[in-house]
Amino acid sequence: MGYEKRIDGRGFKETRPIEAKVGVIEKADGSAYFKIGKTWAYAAVYGPRELLPKSMQNPKTGILRVNYNMLPFSGVGERVRPGPSRRSREISMVSEAALLPVLDLEAYPNTVVDVFIELPQTDAGSRAAGICAASMALADAGLEMKDLVGAIAVGKVDDKIVVDLQYEEEAYKEGEVADIPIAMIPSTGEITLLQMDGPIKREELIEAIKIAKDVIKDIVEIQRKAIKDKYKGMIQ
Q1: Going by DSSP bridges, is the β-strand pair 177-185/190-194 parallel, antiparallel, or unpaired?
Q2: Bridge partners of 44?
Q3: At 160, is the secondary structure helix, strand, or coil?
Q4: How far apart are CA 174 and CA 151, in angstroms?
Q5: Of 42, 41, 121, which Cα lies nearest the Cα of 74?
Q6: Using CA atoms, how far apart are residues 89 and 31, in angstroms rounded to an integer?
Q7: Distance in angstroms (rounded) separating the CA atoms of residues 164 and 13
Q8: Of 220, 182, 218, which Cα lies nearest the Cα of 200?
Q9: Engineering a disulfide at 178: which of 49, 142, 188, 200 sits with its beta carbon 3.0 to 4.6 angstroms away?
């Protein structure tokens, strides 16, 4: 039969509605939120600041630390248990790796930049939303960056390649499902995150990545607009 129509009526290459804003947490050095459908991600940046204890300092560069956290009762599926988990630590690690290539931390030796990603509500695509929010928050903090990082989940539901899976698609029972979070630097085309959960053929994966690159370019334009909107009133 095949997956002929998406559960929420979207086109197969269409994302859910997106909202983005920076400067949303007053006491942070930089902050942002990124909303895609029913998935909300907030990011707060603190630093660069002196890294303690000093034995952890690197005199040649600063370091980036990312902490990803889904709040209890934030998910559509099973309740999220409070506190660190194997999943949150893994997503923190891959988010850090996705963001590092655009940062020039050699300008901040012996320091740390802490990024806290909090998700009060999720409906799939949480790590991609968190990376988008964190990228904007780093820019809002004034760090030297080569570009923003955009991210989206693409994948396969039964026989169709789809963009921005929601939870009901991830849980689809009528056929195979593959979920592929991707992060990219749009100016270079460099992929900084590529993960895969579920079976997919090689040619389908290539198609999914190609579609994701086009979608991410549009997402980064939304991120850029959010940053410009904050500062346009300050620039004469």
Answers
A1: antiparallel
A2: 31, 116
A3: strand
A4: 27
A5: 121
A6: 21
A7: 8
A8: 182
A9: 200
Task: Pull the structure tokens for residue 128.
Answer: 């991609």
The per-residue pLDDT for range 44-77, each reduced to its tens digit, is: 999 999 999 998 999 999 999 999 998 866 555 5
In 3-state terms, the chain is what percent helix, strand and coil (to 5)?
Answer: 30, 30, 40
Mean pLDDT score, 19-27: 96
- Per the CB < 8 A criterion, the answer to whether 49 and 55 are in contact is no
The phi-psi region of residue 164 (left if phi > 0; otherwise alpha if psi is between -120 and 50; otherwise beta) is: left
Give every CB contact of residue 184 below 8 A, 6+ residues apart in sequence: 149, 150, 151, 190, 191, 192, 212, 213, 216
> Measured between alpha carbons, how far is 209 from 154 in angstroms, rounded to an integer?
8
Count Cα atoms within 13 angstroms, Cβ side, for 149: 29
- pTM value is 0.92
What is the number of other CB atoms lying within 10 angstroms of the CB of residue 217? 14
Q: What domains, with CATH codes, occur in the chain?
A: 18-231 (3.30.230.70)
Contacts 24+ apart (CB under 8 A), 199-208: 200/155, 200/156, 204/156, 204/161, 204/178, 205/180, 207/161, 208/154, 208/155, 208/156, 208/161, 208/180
- Say how far apart CA 32 and CA 196 lie, in whole Å: 27
Nearest Cα to 194, choosing from 204, 207, 179?
A: 179
Cβ atoms 58, 110 nearer than 8 A: yes
